[in-house]
Amino acid sequence: MPYAAPGQVVGLLGGSFDPAHQGHVHITREALKRFGLDKVWWLVSPGNPLKERGPAPLEERLIHARQVMRHPRVEVTDIEARLGTRYTAQSLSKLQALYPRVHFVWLMGADNLAQFHLWQDWQEIIDTVPIGVLARPGQRLSARMSRAATLYAPYRIPGRFGHLLARSQPPAWCFVNLPMINVSSTAIRASGAWSA
């Protein structure tokens, strides 16, 4: 398991990373800056319950992700496989029990906010940890009009105050616009460039 000191702020970026790409790297670096994070842990998931097709083998995705994401404050992990969790809410609960004095922030692209209400126990997630949302190509409007964004509108922190997110009491979320890199794992797989 990765190390985090008491009081540190750790951003958690979950996903299948099938494959990891420069878009993931970009939003990770931006999250470190915009949300004042000490570290980011990539949670390379064993599988995504919302996707019909299973991902490439976990070990291959981890190896590739570690080649793509090189930063001294970012760790690529298989935490969910180690914890035996399948859903984000379960993972967060176990991580908070293991690291009771660490401040976690859940990170997601705007595409995930747009369908966040489909996640198992999604309201438990937003009521448990602050959420940092990073703009993705073509997803700004659908994310801002999503069920989660509408229901939790009173708890939104303006992007210019993103540095306050990590120490905010949940529910709290912040949407930041960034210069975007238009690349996706789906497009990479479709092009045949990832055949793990």
From TrEMBL:
Pathway where it operates: Cofactor biosynthesis; NAD(+) biosynthesis; deamido-NAD(+) from nicotinate D-ribonucleotide: step 1/1
Catalytic activity reported: nicotinate beta-D-ribonucleotide + ATP + H(+) = deamido-NAD(+) + diphosphate
Domain Cytidyltransferase-like: 12-190
Keyword entries, A-Z: ATP-binding, NAD, Nucleotide-binding, Nucleotidyltransferase, Pyridine nucleotide biosynthesis, Transferase
GO terms under biological process: NAD+ biosynthetic process
Listed EC numbers: 2.7.7.18
GO MF entries: ATP binding; nicotinate-nucleotide adenylyltransferase activity
Similarity-based family: Belongs to the NadD family.
NCBIfam families found in the cross-reference section: nicotinate (nicotinamide) nucleotide adenylyltransferase, PRK00071.2-2, PRK00071.2-4
Function as written in the Swiss-Prot or TrEMBL entry: Catalyzes the reversible adenylation of nicotinate mononucleotide (NaMN) to nicotinic acid adenine dinucleotide (NaAD).
Identification of the protein by name: Probable nicotinate-nucleotide adenylyltransferase
Name of encoding gene: nadD
